[in-house]
Amino acid sequence: MAQSKGVLRLWRNNEISSVSENHYDSLIIQIIKKIHREQVHKDFIRASKVIGEMLEQMMEEFVSDSFLEYRIRYLIYNGVLELKGVPKSMRHYSVKLR
């Protein structure tokens, strides 16, 4: 494992495997789409709500909320998500799909 250059490792089938850093990006987008469908008007969603929903769905996987927030910020900085607020912590800003 020390020789691995992977940033994200998952416990699968009783072993540790490396996955790409963007492994959860599609799940982040899926969850935001799901929340948007539940809204009357497609509006901003607190980042903490998105992360909470992800952690709820991924109960079997051990991924930190910090890593998930890092990926949300990555999606913001790369134009996939819009930002409202100050991204100093997950409860201080909201996101929506562009």
Please provide a written account of the structure.
The protein has 98 residues and is an alpha+beta fold. The protein is built from three helices and five strands; from the N terminus they run ββαβααββ. It has helices spanning 25-38, 47-57, 65-77; strands at residues 8-12, 15-19, 45-46, 81-85, 93-97. The strands form two sheets. Strands 3-5-4 form a three-stranded antiparallel sheet. Helix 1 crosses helix 2 and helix 2 (47-57) crosses helix 3 (65-77). It is globular and about 45 Å long. The relative contact order is 0.18.
Q: How would you summarize the topology of this molecule?
A:
Layout: E1 8-12, E2 15-19, H1 25-38, E3 45-46, H2 47-57, H3 65-77, E4 81-85, E5 93-97
Antiparallel strand pairs: 1-2, 3-5, 4-5
Question: Can you tag this structure with a few keywords?
Answer:
single chain; 98 residues; alpha+beta; three-stranded antiparallel beta sheet; 3 helices
